[in-house]
Amino acid sequence: xxxxKNIENEIDRIIEEFREDGIKEKERIIENAxxxxxxxxxxxxxxxxxxxxxxxDQIRKEYAERIFNIVEDLIKKKLTTKDHERVxxxxxxxVVHIN
Length: 99
Description:
By secondary structure, this protein is an all-alpha fold. Helices cover 96% and strands 0% of the residues.
């Protein structure tokens, strides 16, 4: 009877040890999952920020190009032949003067 009690105690001890090991493993898995989730979240945030910067840069380029085209059209409409000749002459004089 004493031997049977010792065996039951040993079984209980082994079961408790497995239960504790299972709890520790569960906690380790959960902690690793939290760490990985944070890494994924940070990576996604960086990628989103990079995409936002790309879009902003593209918008700036498109905006600048549109402004340039509008100004160019306005100048073409307003610039007479005489004005054009004067601008070219002034430019040539500046270039000659610099050299």
